[in-house]
Every structure is written in C-alpha cells, then in structure tokens.
Design goal:
about 300 residues, alpha/beta, Epimerase_deHydtase, UDP-glucose 4-epimerase
C-alpha cells in the first residue's frame, strides 16, 4: 500500500537517491528542503511527475514543519548541517541538527506518523576501542554534529514513548557516490585524490594512510532507508549500522582510485593528526532487522564514481 512520505533535506545528496526509490514503489513524496544546496532542476523533474510536492522551508521553523507533516504517514529525516561545518559554526549545527530534528520528531508524534527513519551517523561512536563497531558499543561523539546525531536518537526514543510513532535511526558510515558534495568531510578525500590524479599528480595522504573508513555507496544507503520504512513496529525503535563491514585504509583507497583513473603514480604521505583512526561497521543487525546487505563493493563503487561525476 502506497504512503505519503515526508522527506526532509530530500533535495540533497542522499535524498536524490532516496526519492526515486520511493517513487518506484508507488509512494507520494512531500519534499521539505530550504534549497540552499538542492538541485532545483532535478526537483522540478520529480514535481512534474505529479507525485512529488516541494515545500521550500527550513526544519528550524516548527510551524512550517507541522504544516508539511499534515497528512504524511512516514518520515525520512535527512536535513542536517555537515560535520565539518558544525565545528566552524556550532550554533548553526545545534540549531539545525538538534532544534530542527526536535521539530520534525515532535510534529511526527503529534500528527500520528507511524514511522520515522532518521539519518544518524557512525560518528556517534567517536574513535572506537574495537572493530567492528556494534550498535551497543559505548558512544563518544566528538563534535557538535556527532552530539546532535546522538541527541536525535534520544529525542526519537522520548517521543516514541509518548505516541504511536516508531523509529529507526540508521547510523551511516562513510557515504560516497554520484552527486556527493566535494566538501563532504569523510569523502572529500576521494575528491581530492581524483582531482590530483586527473591532473597527473600523486594523491597526498595524511599520516601513514593507515586510518581506515567503511565506505558505503549511496545507492545502498538509499535502499536501507526505504527498507527501514517497512520494518515491523515490534522490531523498530533502535539504531542500525549501515556500512559494508569492510574497513578500507586511506592508502588502499588511493591505490584503488589510481587504478580507476588509470594513471601511473605513487601516493605521497605527509604527517598530520586525524580525527578518527579506524572505522568498520558490524552490520549483522541491518541484515537481521532490515534484511539489508550492501550490494556495491568499494572497487566497483569508486570506478563508478570516477566514470560518472567527479572531476
């Protein structure tokens, strides 16, 4: 049965991959986005289908959120300020990522929404003591962005206890893929490497390149979001890691991209501190609760990225 789904931040990177999947399954989409970074051309194409409505508003305004929520069955909350911007402007980060999220969750509870899927983040773990990182591991958020994602999960639990609303918080690991912004904190390294490689220059790696990330393709992220909308209520109200379960070192990434671009260079290394040294998701809960597992490996995904949009 089709639903009316409110997607906040739906004109952004992840939203641009989620909305088409919602349309494929027959849903109607109400897209709420302030369009500060959204692709108006792409949104116009969606609106032209007659099944997407654009609400050009900001989640920081509670009244606007309540109006957008009216008549919606489900919510995908993607709107956020990125991790790097949160350190540059903590006030804005708290305003959008905490106050804005609270507005969305409160409105969802008030309007009888049955499911909220929240774009949380693996950054809530901080620098982990062990790999793979599991949902029940200790949390140690290190920036205003990370604190906000943790707070968002707690706010969801609060409102779910006081309403019929259920929720899934997807802790995304290092998302990459077509349409990503060149300033994205954990994927800007990809853009940096590819730009240098296409200029015939060697990629420059911070430290020894031993720091690792769990790179997960945005298509697989979007699949997880849509699958989370359909989880039985009895199995909801919990966080779920979305990654590949494979850690790729920055040095390995550089060599993968060298092969993808097709140049004959060797990486260069420079001493520099890194915020988080290792990342790898335990994805057993995603398989158990969502029936989800990744379908795009890093080598295939990076080749796709190089061939499609980055340059």
């Amino acid at each position: 049965m089709s639903s009316t789904v409110l997607v906040t931040g739906g004109a952004g990177f992840i939203g641009s991959h989620v909305v088409p999947l919602l349309l494929e399954r027959g849903d109607r989409v109400r897209l709420m986005d302030n369009m500060s970074r959204g692709d108006r051309g792409r949104v116009a194409e969606w609106v032209a289908t007659g099944r997407v409505e654009l609400v050009e508003q900001d989640v920081r305004y509670g009244g606007a959120v309540h109006r957008a929520m009216s008549g919606c069955d489900q919510v995908v909350h993607l709107a956020a300020v990125s991790i790097n911007k949160s350190e540059a402007d903590p006030y804005e980060s708290v305003d959008i990522n905490i106050v804005g999220s609270n507005n969305v969750f409160k409105a969802a509870a008030d309007h009888g929404v049955r499911r909220v899927v929240f774009a949380s983040s693996a950054s809530v773990y901080g620098d982990p003591d062990r790999l793979p990182m599991a949902e029940d591991d200790p949390l140690d958020p290190l920036t205003p962005y990370c604190v906000a994602k943790h707070t968002g999960e707690q706010l969801l639990a609060y409102y779910a206890r006081r309403s019929a609303m259920t929720w899934i918080a997807l802790r995304f690991f290092n998302v990459y893929g077509p349409g990503q912004k060149p300033t994205a904190y954990y994927t800007s390294v990809i853009n940096h490497f590819v730009q240098r490689l296409r200029s015939g220059e060697a990629p420059v790696i911070d430290g020894k390149g031993e720091q690792s990330m769990d790179f997960v393709h945005v298509h697989d992220i979007a699949r997880a979001v849509v699958m989370a909308l359909d989880v039985d209520a009895a199995r909801a109200n919990l966080p779920i890691n979305i990654g590949t379960g494979i850690d790729t070192s920055v040095a390995e990434l550089a060599r993968t991209l060298i092969d993808a671009v097709g140049v004959d260079v060797e990486p260069q290394f420079r001493p520099r501190d890194v915020l988080v040294s290792r990342r790898m998701a335990d994805i057993s809960r995603a398989l158990d609760v969502l029936g989800w597992k990744p379908t795009i490996d890093v080598r295939t995904g990076m080749q796709d990225l190089v061939d499609s949009e980055i340059g």
